[in-house]
């Protein structure tokens, strides 16, 4: 699994111009699932993301985690993270997991994050979504569960 994690102020996701998920302060996580990913991959990513110290403390240092700041997590399923652009001009998405597998792991990831005591807002799996947020810093991390 891959996650693109971005600090966020006032993040929201809309489907058909209707907001279906939003957070005030926290993280926006774009989550991609590939073949062979398991619940262990989701568990690794949740632990890493929820406890990663990327929020500033009172001295302006990245010393606080999502849990430390009582932030929210806006989770967006994004199969395009597994787009292969090495050949031609059109990305190949053969490395993205089939929808059933991806949806199951996406929901599992969200459940685990909620079990960590984090407020989780989500997009709609498989829908065309509009995601809006401010990325202070900017701070963006890319985490791949295969790199553990």
Account of the 3D structure:
The chain is an alpha/beta fold and 148 residues long. The chain has one domain (2-147): D-tyrosyl-tRNA(Tyr) deacylase (D-tyrosyl-trna(Tyr) Deacylase, Chain: A), CATH 3.50.80.10. The chain is built from two helices and eight strands. It has helices at 39-51, 99-115; strands at residues 2-15, 18-32, 55-56, 62-64, 72-77, 119-122, 130-134, 140-144. The strands form two sheets. Strands 1, 2, 5, 6, 7 and 8 form a six-stranded mixed beta sheet that branches. Helix 1 (39-51) packs across helix 2 (99-115). The longest helix is centred in the last third of the chain and has 17 residues, at 99-115. It starts with a strand and ends with a strand. The mean pLDDT is 96.
Task: Provide tags for this entry.
148 residues, alpha/beta, D-tyrosyl-trna(Tyr) Deacylase, Chain: A, six-stranded mixed beta sheet, two-stranded antiparallel ribbon, 8 strands, 20% helix
Strand percent estimate: 35-45%
- The stretches of 5 or more residues where confidence is low (pLDDT under 50) are none
H/I helix tally: 2
Question: What top-tier CATH class fits best?
Answer: Alpha Beta
Structural class by SSE content: alpha/beta
CATH fold name, please?
D-tyrosyl-trna(Tyr) Deacylase, Chain: A
> How many β-strands, per DSSP?
8
Overall mean confidence score, pLDDT:
96
Radius of gyration (CA) equals: 15 Å
CATH architecture identity: 3-Layer(bba) Sandwich
Q: What shape does the CA trace take? A: globular
What does the largest sheet look like? Answer: 6 strands, mixed
The named CATH superfamily: D-tyrosyl-tRNA(Tyr) deacylase
Distance from first to last alpha carbon:
11 Å
Range of helix content: 10-25%
Query: SSE order, as H and E?
Result: EEHEEEHEEE
Number of domains: 1
